[in-house]
Design a protein that fits this description.
This protein is mainly α and 463 residues long. The chain has 2 domains: 354 residues, no CATH class; 104 residues. Helices cover 64% and strands 3% of the residues. It is built from 21 helices and 5 strands. The strands form 2 sheets. Strands 2-1-5 form a 3-stranded parallel sheet. A hairpin with a 4-residue loop joins β3 and β4. α10 runs antiparallel to α11. The longest helix is centred in the N-terminal third of the chain and has 26 residues. The protein is globular.
C-alpha cells in the first residue's frame, strides 16, 4: 500500500505542479503574492509578516530565483511552484522517509479534498502551517515511544511545534483535534504513547500562552480575533446567517467530497457506537465551522472563506484515513477498493482545480486590457472598475507592476486602484514615484533588472 500511495502522491503533486506552472500568473499576480514578490525582489530578502515564519519555506523560492538573476517570469514561476514543492516535500517526508503513509494521505487530502479558490490564492500561512502539522504528527507516529523519541526526533518535533503555533491562530484547532484524536490511556493501544501526546499538548499550550498573553499577538491577528465577539453579539441567531447558506451551497458545488467524507465518518462512528470519537469529530467540525461563520456572518470572497475552512478537510481526513477505511481492511491496512476510491477522488479534485481557473484568468485579462486602453500613471477609483471581477484592490499597484514588466520590461506601468484615491494625494506631486497602498517608492528603489518605470509625468485621476 505504501508504494501505491507514494506513486499516487507523486503523480498528484506533479499534476498540481503542472497546473501551478500553467496558471503561475493567476497565482502570483494577485494581492498578497504580488505584494510579496515585488517586495522580496526590492529588498532582496525574505518578507515575513505577523510573525508567521512558516512563510519562509515558500518565499525562499523567489528569493533564490532573484539572487540567481532569473528573469521575472522565472521568479514568479518559482514562487508559484514553490507552494506545490513544499506540500509535495511534506508528502514525501511522510511516506518515503518516515514511512507513515497514512499521514502522507492526510497531506494529499489537505491539498485536494476541498481546495478550489485557494489553489489560486496561495499566500495564506494556514495551509502552509497545516503541512507542518502533518509532518509533526508523522514524526510522532514514527518515533511513538518515549524511548525512541529521544535525541534529534524530540528536538525537531519541538521546533516544528513552535513553527506550527506561530503559523496561524486558527491552527490551534486542528492541533488539538489531532492530539485528542490520538489520545489513548492504554500505551499498548495507542498509536502515539500518551506521554508524548500529553507533552505535545502542554508544549503547544505554553507556546500559545507565550505568543498571545506574554509577547502579545500582532495587530493583524488581534483585529481578526476580535470578530469572535460576534459569538455573543449574534447569540442565539446562529443558524440564519448568510455565511451558513453560502457554505452549504459551496458544499454542493465545490466541497462535495468533504460532504461525503463527513457523512461517511459520522455514520461509521455512530454504527460503531464510538461515542467519544463521534463527539470529538462533531464538536471540532461544527464548533470550528460555527466560529468561522459567526465571525464573518455575511460571508466574504470564496478564496478567503475557503482558506479559513481548510481545517475542516483535516478534521475529515484524519478519521477517514486512520479509523474508517482501516476497519474494512486487515491488520490496520486499507481494503483494495479504498486505494481506487482515493485515486479517483484525487483525480476528480485536480480536474476541478484546473477548471476553476476561469475567473482568475478573466481578471488578468481585464487588467491587461485596461493597461492597453489607458496610458499614463493612474489613480483609479474602485467605482470605475468591475470589483466583482477584480475582487480586491489593495494589491493592484503591485499587480500592474508585475504584469506590465512581464509584457514590456522597458516600461513598467504604474496604476493604483483604491476606494478613495484622494487619500493618496500626498504623493501625487512627485514625478518619479511609485504609489502603493501604504507607501511611496522612488524609482531608484526598484531593482532595474526587473522593474523599469519610464514615465516621469504625475499621476492623474482616472475619470
Amino acid at each position: 500500500m505504501n508504494r501505491n500511495i507514494l506513486l499516487l502522491g507523486i503523480a498528484a503533486y506533479v499534476l498540481l505542479g503542472v497546473l501551478a506552472a500553467i496558471f503561475y500568473l493567476e497565482r502570483t499576480v494577485f494581492i498578497d503574492l504580488a505584494f510579496h514578490a515585488v517586495t522580496i525582489l526590492k529588498k532582496k530578502s525574505l518578507f515575513i509578516q505577523n510573525q508567521r515564519f512558516v512563510a519562509a519555506v515558500t518565499q525562499v523560492f523567489p528569493l533564490v530565483a532573484g539572487s540567481l538573476k532569473l528573469p521575472l517570469k522565472g521568479v514568479l514561476m518559482a514562487y508559484s511552484l514553490g507552494f506545490v514543492a513544499w506540500y509535495g516535500f511534506v508528502f514525501l517526508a511522510c511516506t518515503a522517509w518516515l514511512k507513515q503513509w497514512k499521514m502522507g494521505v492526510v497531506m494529499l487530502l489537505c491539498s485536494t479534498l476541498m481546495v478550489t479558490d485557494t489553489f489560486y490564492w496561495v499566500q495564506s500561512e494556514l495551509p502552509q502551517g497545516m503541512a507542518l502539522l502533518v509532518l509533526t504528527f508523522a514524526l510522532l507516529l514514527r518515533y511513538k515511544t518515549p524511548e525512541a523519541f529521544g535525541g534529534w526526533p524530540m528536538g525537531l518535533t519541538f521546533v516544528l511545534w513552535f513553527a506550527v503555533a506561530y503559523a496561524h491562530p486558527m491552527l490551534a484547532f486542528p492541533v488539538f483535534f489531532a492530539l485528542f484524536f490520538f489520545w489513548e490511556k492504554n500505551p499498548a493501544r495507542a498509536a502515539i504513547h500518551p506521554k508524548l501526546v500529553a507533552a505535545s499538548a502542554v508544549f503547544v499550550f505554553l507556546i500559545l500562552l507565550l505568543k498571545n498573553r506574554v509577547i502579545g499577538p500582532t495587530g493583524y491577528d488581534s483585529e481578526a480575533m476580535s470578530r469572535v465577539g460576534n459569538l455573543l453579539k449574534l447569540f442565539p441567531n446562529y443558524f440564519n446567517l448568510a455565511s451558513n447558506r453560502i457554505f452549504l451551497r459551496w458544499c454542493v458545488t465545490d466541497y462535495y467530497l468533504l460532504s461525503l467524507g463527513f457523512l461517511a465518518t459520522s455514520i461509521f462512528y455512530f454504527w460503531q457506537k464510538n461515542w467519544r470519537k463521534l463527539a470529538l469529530f462533531g464538536a471540532f467540525f461544527f464548533g470550528y465551522l460555527l466560529l468561522v461563520n459567526v465571525s464573518i456572518p455575511d460571508g466574504y470572497h470564496q478564496f478567503y472563506m475557503e482558506n479559513l475552512y481548510l481545517p475542516l478537510g483535516f478534521f475529515v481526513a484524519l478519521p477517514l484515513v486512520f479509523d474508517v477505511l482501516p476497519h474494512f481492511g486487515k491488520n490496520g491496512d486499507w481494503p483494495k477498493w479504498a486505494f481506487a476510491a482515493l485515486a479517483i477522488g484525487v483525480a476528480v479534485r485536480i480536474l476541478h482545480i484546473g477548471l476553476s481557473h476561469r475567473p482568475w484568468t478573466a481578471r488578468l485579462d481585464w487588467e491587461r486590457n485596461f493597461m492597453k486602453e489607458n496610458p499614463g500613471k493612474l489613480l483609479v477609483p474602485e467605482s470605475k472598475v468591475p470589483m466583482n471581477q477584480l475582487l480586491l484592490s489593495w494589491g493592484s499597484s503591485f499587480e500592474f507592476i508585475l504584469l506590465s514588466s512581464l509584457e514590456n520590461p522597458d516600461n513598467t506601468r504604474l496604476i493604483t486602484i483604491d476606494e478613495d484615491p484622494a487619500r493618496l494625494n500626498w504623493a501625487t506631486d512627485r514625478s518619479r514615484t511609485v504609489i502603493t497602498e501604504w507607501e511611496a517608492w522612488d524609482y531608484d528603489q526598484l531593482p532595474r533588472e526587473y522593474f523599469n518605470p519610464q514615465d516621469t509625468t504625475l499621476y492623474r485621476l482616472f475619470q
